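Weekly sync notes, structure subgroup
Attendees: PM, AL, DS (notes)

Item 1: joint prediction request from the bench team. They want all three components modeled as one assembly rather than separately. Inputs as received:
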Amino acid sequence: MKRLSGFSVGVVALAGALVFGGAAMDARAQSKETLTFAAATFAEAGRGDKLKVWIEKFNKSQAAIEVQPVALPFSTLAKTVFTQMGGGAGPDLVRFDLNDYYAAVQAQRILPIDDGIKESDFKFSGPNKYMMVGANRYGVPFEISNYALLYNPQLVKGGKPPANFDEFIALAKASSGNGVFGYAYRATMAESNGFWQDLCNFVYGFDGRWSDAKGNLSINSAKVVEGVVAYKKVYDAGVTPKGADASTYRRMFWERKLAMEIDNGGVAGIFNQQAPELPLAAAPSPFPTRAQGLILAPITINANTKHKAAALTFMRWMLQPENQRELQGILGASSVATVIERTAEESRQKPWLKIYDEQSAYGVPQLVQGFEARTPEIQQVILEQVLQVLQGGVEPQKAMDEAQRLATARVLRK
Amino acid sequence: MAINLNNKSGAGRADWTPYLFSAPVVLYLLIFQGYPLLQELYLSFTSTSLLSPAKHVFVGLRNYSDLVEAAEFARVLWTTFIYTVGCVVFSVSLGLGAALLLNAPLRGRGLARSLITIPWAAPPVAVALIFVWMFNGQYGVLHQAFQWVGLSDGMEGWLNDPALALTAVLVTTVWQIFPFASVVILSALQGVSSELREAAVMDGADRLSVFVAVVWPTIRPTVMLLTLFVTIWSLRRFDLIWLMTQGGPIGRTNTLVIELYRRAFTFRELGEAAAVGMVGLTTALLITIVYFWFNVRAERAAGQK
Amino acid sequence: MNHSIDWRHSVRVMVVLAILGLTAFPIYWMLVTAMTSSGNLFASPTHLTPDLKQWPVFSKVFGETPVAIWLKNSALVALGTTGLSLLLAVLPAYALSRFRFAGVGLLGLGLFVTQMLPEAMLVVPLYAIFGQLSLLNTLTGLILVNTAFTVPVITWILKGAIDGIPIDIEEAASIDGCSRLGTVFNIVIPLIAPSLAATAVIAFFHGWNEYVFAQTLISDAHLHTASVGLAGFVGELSTPLHSVMAIGLMYTLPAVFFYLLVQRYVVAGMTAGSVKG
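Output from the run, pasted for the record:
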């Protein structure tokens, strides 16, 4: 009788210890004012560690403020942070993607920072204009990245990039075979954000835009449909690893199983850092116009924060030229908020940087302008219709008409 | 075997013991499931954004009427139905087959019984990752096997093919849950009276008749209960499907739970998501009620025999 | 006569082996993928056996990823869920078995309702509640919410097991002067040990495998469980697939081993009590 009551007591003790021990683990001693800064970049091997070192520099320079990097996976960052913000918490500083930025502004989840960051103090680059919503600025660009055609000169037949779209298809076909694919892009709902980015590149390249100057949706306009037709042409050409997600086909590029892909400067930087012997070159994307998507990731301040002044201090530190230069070096082929020239050495070692930097002038955000905060829903509608074109045999014009109809209905409803 | 509360010696005093024993759990469940459920019910009549969950705009039945009108929602219901039926039919029948096999005397039976439960022990996140790789359209081992056997033209992996994606997800799910079914049925099989079984065999009955006359009636209640549980768990299953296809391609694996999650966290519309959740819950409740109704009738019929 | 029995027996053995092969293959494939060099992952034809020279991948992932922390957190959550669930479920199971009172039907209904609730549906309101209780970003919070999902099933199973214990034993103890609570813990619990093992397994798996709450309620990287950590690799370029699979394997095997330890009792414990006589 006694032995078994000991067993029971043991279970109670164990359960109690585990249940309450968990709470004790969160006790943290604090002497400096501590801020958390959440970004997907911290989770990247290579760039993430260098970035953490860069943040440490700030911490060492400050007696009273410490910034703690929080690494969240790219695919779930917005979801996680928004849920936390809705609950009254969340990290103090957040690096968002542009569409999440607009959603956050609309829901008043991030603070306007005009009082802390003065335009005239810094040499901001062009894309900085997208930070203004209404009359206020809500963030500062952390990373600006453009898209270009990345290719492996050894795998591309002829070693030269294509000059136009038809040449591109022909080259992709010619380079495919023997376990090598000519081109890769995203076309699955499981990767809807990346799919959207790739689709925007095609549509913008054919001079299409999702909304027109009058503020109406133009999903079924002729140029947009041209872009979708092009997307389908590539799909039907049999040159892509169908269903492969971006991390897989970027890996394939790394392992020399892929000849070309249109990707952003950040990825080019990763290839360069992690696989220096990989033959890598860049060219403008093979479309009629040079307009391509623009990745603009701003750093913002959470409306729930208790450390607004400290956050602004960090932002101002970040915008100092030396720190901007260092950040740009870490990010690879991306640019930073202010205009920082590449060193001659960098340009020599990484000739593909030039293509990405030149592309800045042509970058268009991958959003539905005028409906920025509604982009996720509109995006879902458009992607579903494009998939109907790719896999369901629907005519591109018909599919885009349907997308226009559904998106308008959704958007007008609220 | 149960104690009747009114029979306690020390007459007249009500025994609070059972209520005391049950109260902590009831309270616990009310806090962690009851209250959130009521919140969700309320949310389903509002328009609420994930970014401002405290700001509810009351919209009455609009979320529900939108669901009824949307053509895609009919597809969601259909997909959920197919997925659930597929899970139940295949996992229970495979589980039954495996249980019967492992019940018969066999060398290494104990080891086999242990090994067969590996899929059940495997975490859904890890299972999703390995099956996605195995189904990969260019390098997946399953993809290559299917090509070899002629089940695939080699162009597209199953997970990306609208016609085959649900099958792939079903294969993964059944792989993961049939061991649970087999363990449950196996333990029920232990209750089959060996005397009855031997009597039937001695009467000259063949194996099928023995099964129908002796084994099945004993395990039927367990199998029926198992079927009910697998059904309502299928309506709830999220991790595997989300990590494998997120409901694609073109909505072919979009079940109610996936739709709920997407509306809440991608579209950030908590009200719509809650409405979808309520539809799912109602479906599960209806199924449970139907099950019990049938069960009561069947038991009554069996009792009258 | 003997020949036909042998033939049937052989077929049976082959089918069992085939089923075992199918159930074990994906785990084996995790091992093969973990132990394939990055280049060979994209080779054709696919290599069917692990490349034994690649075994350092397992030690490398400990250096390159926080997998040790993840596994530790998963273990804490799983063990906590197990302990708390069993603790909470014993008394109500006993009450439902031994007493006839209004609760039985209600609990049965409640059990089914809780089994129907998807985590995804409750996560947002629970997030708000946890925020108010300061349980956000704690493993304790995860343990509490996981327990809510396992307690109904465990109560049900334990009730069934207690049903199978003859009441005379308790009455004898009561005559000996044992209190009701004492009877429960000293007499009844040891007798339902197989069911306790079975329900411990259920609770452990739930805590170990859980994903949705672990993903939403925890934001600190050092509190992430392995399910969240592993899922975070989806769509990420820098970690090669073989590392991801190595982590997947390390996440899968402990649960499998735990099960194999107690599986002897599980089969008996699942429906104990409904087996009469």
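Discussion: The longest strand of chain B covers residues 3-4.
Action: AL to compare against the crosslinking data before next sync.
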